[in-house]
Amino acid sequence: MYKFMLGFSRFMTMLGGLVLVVLIFITGISIAGRLLNGFFHGAFMKAVAPDFAAWMIAIGVGPISGDFELVEAGMAFAVFAFLPLCQITAGHASVDIFASFLPRGVNRFLRMAIEVIFAVVLIAIAIQLYSGMTDKLKNGETSFLLAYPVWWAYALSLFGAVAAAIVGVYMGAVRVTEFLTRRIIVIDGNEG
Question: Where is the Tripartite ATP-independent periplasmic transporters DctQ component domain (predicted)?
Answer without folding.
Answer: 63-170
